[in-house]
Design a protein that fits this description.
alpha/beta, Rossmann fold, single chain, seven-stranded parallel beta sheet, 2 domains
Length: 352
């Protein structure tokens, strides 16, 4: 049976499970609901949904039983249970390993010499590039953060990592250190949208070490100057000592993340393609053999070097047809020694 976790709703209410529900706040004055009252109503409804979700998924109550305990109609109870799922208040984790996924993981381990592999099921109807992988990554991060001895966990950036961090439960990990492997600044000077260091540190209450740089500097000289700053030097040194690192793998196909997010131009992308680049990790572009591209944007990458696989566990989170060449190249070098992916991607990697 799956493990089910219920996330606490934003209002932080702590009413008893059997407490009566009073419904949304009344409208006062001239019948106009102010933004503050609307916000209170949303928070209370999320509380009700969390309570209904707990009763249904954890306590095993029927919808009729939930309705009776909450003092609402059966239809309202059903809507609250649905809201608990759609609002992300419910997290499901399967305890039973799937044989085909285990088999594919073993083949990937044997083929590429990996030290960690997690293959998750594929939903054939889904177009998501993060579904399943983000959940598995969050579970692996949580497992490692539960360690009592202190560790250094390094994190990259990207859509899959952000989705994984958003799934982390609240934890208290003051003994650990979280270090960013990539810059936290977008090309326009704003905070990079897919950077995860701050949200992760907030979730797990660990010391965190951001990289106050862009992913790619304007010039090699600027990058070198930035890396001479004391705070940046200490962050780079800490990143090199990481016990485990979680990184994304970018591709240079139709919608390369570095281009979409504004870190490189169309002309730079064309030059990288001509040089044989098929993917990137932390902004470092590499070819089909996993070799870093000489010159071009790699001369200006401000990120930390990819942690060495002989001293660190470097786990890549990636799936999908568009990323196949990049994933295969990163595994073959290897630039990474761990992988979280899905069945379809694993099968394609093994067939290649």
């Amino acid at each position: 049976m799956p493990n089910v976790g219920i996330k606490r709703s934003q209002s932080g209410a702590t009413r008893g499970v059997g407490g009566a529900i009073t419904g949304p706040p009344a409208v006062h004055g001239h019948g106009i609901a102010t933004p503050a009252r609307r916000s209170e109503g949303v928070a209370r409804r999320l509380d009700d949904a969390a309570r209904a979700g707990w009763l249904y998924y954890v306590a095993g109550n029927t919808q009729e039983e939930i309705a009776a305990k909450l003092g609402v109609s059966r239809q309202s109870a059903q809507r609250l249970v649905s809201l608990a799922m759609s609002a992300g208040l419910v997290k499901v984790r399967l305890d039973h390993p799937i044989a085909r996924c285990l088999e594919l993981g073993k083949h990937l381990t044997d083929r590429f010499g990996l030290v960690f592999v997690n293959v998750v099921p594929t939903d054939p109807a889904s177009t998501s590039t993060t579904l399943g992988v983000a959940e598995a990554a969050a579970a692996e991060m949580e497992r490692r953060l539960e360690s009592v001895p202190p560790i250094i966990m390094a994190v990259g950036t990207g859509r899959t990592l952000k989705a994984a961090i958003d799934l982390l439960p609240a934890m208290e990990c003051p003994q650990h250190r979280i270090v960013s492997l990539t810059g936290n600044v977008a090309p326009d000077g704003s905070a990079a949208f897919y950077n995860v260091i701050f949200s992760m540190a907030d979730a797990v209450k660990a010391r965190h070490f951001p990289m106050p740089l862009s992913v790619i500097a304007a010039s090699r000289e600027e990058r070198d100057l930035l890396h001479q700053q004391k705070t940046v030097r200490s962050t780079l040194a800490l990143a090199a000592q990481a016990d485990v690192a979680f990184v994304g793998i970018g591709e240079f196909g139709e919608h390369p993340p570095l281009l979409v997010d504004g870190f490189i131009t169309g002309a730079e992308l064309a030059a990288l393609r001509r040089a044989g680049a098929v993917g990137e990790v932390l902004g470092w572009a590499f070819d089909r053999a996993g070799r870093l591209i000489e010159g071009l944007t790699n001369d200006r990458v401000a990120s930390a070097p990819i942690p060495a696989v002989d001293t660190s566990m470097v786990i890549a989170l990636a799936k999908g047809p568009a990323k196949l060449p990049a994933i295969g190249a990163a595994l073959s070098r290897p630039l990474v020694n761990g992988l979280i992916t899905d069945e379809a991607t694993a099968e394609a990697l093994l067939a290649g």
